[in-house]
Amino acid sequence: MAVAVDAMGGDRAPSAIVEGAVRATKEFGLKVILVGDESILKKELDRFSFPKELLRLYHAGQVVGMDESPSEALRKKPKSSIRVAFNLVRKGEASAVVSAGNSGATLACAMVTVGRICGVRPAIATVMPTLKNPVVLIDVGANVDCKPHHLLQFGIMGAAFSKEAIGNKRPRVGLLSIGEENTKGNQQVKKAFDLLSKSSLNFVGNVEGRDVFKGDVDVVVCDGFVGNVSLKLSEGLAESILLMLKKEIQQSSIITKIGYLLARSAFKRFRRLIDYSEYGGAPLLGIKGIGIICHGRSGPSAICNAVRVANTLVKADFVKHLESRMQQEVSLASVAL
Amino acid sequence: MAVAVDAMGGDRAPSAIVEGAVRATKEFGLKVILVGDESILKKELDRFSFPKELLRLYHAGQVVGMDESPSEALRKKPKSSIRVAFNLVRKGEASAVVSAGNSGATLACAMVTVGRICGVRPAIATVMPTLKNPVVLIDVGANVDCKPHHLLQFGIMGAAFSKEAIGNKRPRVGLLSIGEENTKGNQQVKKAFDLLSKSSLNFVGNVEGRDVFKGDVDVVVCDGFVGNVSLKLSEGLAESILLMLKKEIQQSSIITKIGYLLARSAFKRFRRLIDYSEYGGAPLLGIKGIGIICHGRSGPSAICNAVRVANTLVKADFVKHLESRMQQEVSLASVAL
Known about the structure:
The structure is a homodimer.
Chain A: E1 2-6, H1 15-28, E2 32-36, H2 38-45, E3 55-59, H3 70-76, H4 81-90, E4 94-99, H5 103-113, E5 123-128, E6 135-138, H6 148-166, E7 172-177, H7 187-198, E8 202-208, E9 219-221, H8 224-250, H9 254-262, H10 264-273, E10 282-285, E11 290-293, H11 300-315, H12 318-328, H13 330-336
Helix pairs in contact in A: 1-11, 3-5, 4-5, 6-7, 6-12
């Protein structure tokens, strides 16, 4: 079944989104439905040659702006591209949704169309580069006020994603805190530590901010406020570090500048390595469907990667897998609730 | 009056601490009291020549370990170097304390010796490099569970520090959140937004993680959990980015490697720029005295800088200044309480 791509969402929509979708058909042979204004999308598609049987258009006359309030978008734009995309999943015409648009609206549309897995707070996970394997950070913004048992749910969902999408057989799950000992953290985190310890997850204890990028843990659990701040801080710092380095080079001697020019290929690879907008997007976990939220700045390769990840999750029957995993923890969750 | 330096605290104590204190006497002509085991410190001092009238030793027979519980340290080690250092301030024999030791114990010792400014939750601030001026992040770990009015207090203290230590006449204060609009954030942050808006601070609204390093705001307010995670995440990421870059270079062609060697001076400067342990330490604000908490890994230059910052705050009569500033906001705080 095809992946529905919200062609109108994102800073570089529709052009970069269409190009990414086209790439997914060509590079991975995946089926895609481009959702958005048909006349605009037809023109965009004219730029490319691609296997016609793998890509079709589905008209949606409205677009949710990047800064629009999710609740307003729900009320006033029933025909928005993101809403229509999730409707395709609900009707069984698409298997998953990829969107680089308004992430709050994406979450809201998912909730009212496909709904959530019983008793679960849907969360947004993101994959970050580290010195070793990539790490899954969950939640990065769907839930800004959490109870401890929500953090347990995030751990379960993050581990399931790490297993199915990244291939970690028994993902190591850590809890983001301010010290390694179980006595460290705020009230919420200390209680979540207990719940995670009692779960059947491969829980490795608290993880400090400085350890996230070492790559010794596969899933890092936190509430959506802390996660969103952490994610954006990391993006901002990575960007600023590159700018500081550039400034240092510019203020240097001619020899240093020549050196930099010679070393530039390594810098370019490095830059791509730490550029989050290059990654395949953040899965929205806990809904009864597959949704991938891409960075607003996503370019074609990010969209293409997101379609690939969505397809991987569909093939792994991720939602069913997660539902049964949640069932296994139900006794614990009921204690916590 | 002299600055009391806890000579026994920190990963590189006492050697690097003694060297840093000696530098402060030589480079800035500041008076220092080195607090710790007298026989050990005497030997350390033998390595240096310095103006004898500016430096004296004060014996303290106990040391608080880096991982020791602050409450146990208080109970069992009344003669620890950090406790004795704060006692010197209480007795009026020293004007400030600098320590690279156990930060929890430093906070606890400050509370039981000099005490806190009436009604205030002491907080730890830290100075981070940005693309423009350094930014003050407060709180980075003293208060993991906060009420909204504590965040207001952090804003007042951070602004006072930014003014006196960094020289910003009317510091721009931002609130760390997940979006710029006042509707973004968790419950705590949304309420703090209201309080900060009504205060007489130069409040510029919410600041996202990605904007912290741009340098367009002078003070960033957050609770101690979020702040500590943010600080350690930044440290970890900066370190990992350097390692990733190194790896890219190592895997490169010989031309690239030569280029890197030529550009290395710029890298060294850059590395120092983003190395937090080089900075002058984190002021403990809200206590009735001056305390500077240095990074555990602090070397001589960090300690020397911290002594200089402590002296600046003493000369500016920082505590009195802060007390009267808190008084001005008292009507607001009483509403909030």
